[in-house]
Every structure is written in C-alpha cells, then in structure tokens.
Amino acid sequence: MMGEHQTFSINPRTGVQFGTAVRLTREFLSRHGSGLDDLLGRFHGIEGYSIRAAVEASCAPSSTTMELSLALEEVVDRLLSLQDEACHPQPVDEGRRLHVDAGLRWYAARFHDLARAARLM
C-alpha cells in the first residue's frame, strides 16, 4: 500500500505553494527565536516574545502575505533602530558592543529576506 497523498495548492501567479512564506517564517522563529529573545533581552523595555508574537499574528490564516511582509519590515526597522540605543550587556558582552550590533543586523537581514520572499510569493 502506498503512503498518504498530500494535495498542495500552487499559486498560479508565482508558481509557489500557498503558505510558503508563513511556513518559512515560522521555521525561522522556531530555530532562531530564542536567540532573538536573548539578544533583545539586553535592551530595556524590549521583549523578544512581543516581537515574535507580532510576527506570529501576521502568520494567522486570515492574514495575507502582504500583511506578513509589512510586519516583518517593521521588525527590521525596529531591530536596526536598536543599534543607536543603550543596552545592558551581559557579562559575556563585556567590551563587545559591536557583537550585539552585528547580531541586530543579522536578525534584521534575515527578517528582510523573509519579507522580500513573502512579497514575491
């Protein structure tokens, strides 16, 4: 007996399976969300889970990929704005503010990539 069959709906405009942008975003948050929380924990008044919750809300079935893209771009802007803000370094960060800023830029670049992919899907 053969395995179960799955049916995928392909967007005729892009040729990409519907829901791909949401899946990629959720997989990214699953893999890297705790690191984002750790990084954002260095900034007063910024909670990583609140940023993740905003992105997750944009992954809801009722949301469009454009809404997801806009939410991801807002996260990019917020992350990049933190480069100018004072942070409360952890002991491992002693004298390494550049590493914190590099982490912010890395996450911003990944969210930008996800936003761009969502716009194209």
How would you describe what is shown here?
With 121 residues, the chain is mainly α. It is built from four helices and no strands. It has a domain at 65-121. Helix content is 60%, strand content 0%. Helix 3 packs antiparallel against helix 4.
Number of helices: 4
Cα-based radius of gyration, to the nearest Å: 17 Å
* Mean pLDDT figure: 84
Task: List low-pLDDT spans.
Answer: none
Structure keywords:
121 residues, mainly alpha, elongated, single chain, 0% strand
Provide a brief overview of the structure.
By secondary structure, the protein is mostly helical. It contains four helices and no strands.
Secondary structure elements and pairings:
Blueprint: H1 20-40, H2 48-57, H3 65-81, H4 97-120
Helix pairs in contact: 1-2, 1-4, 3-4
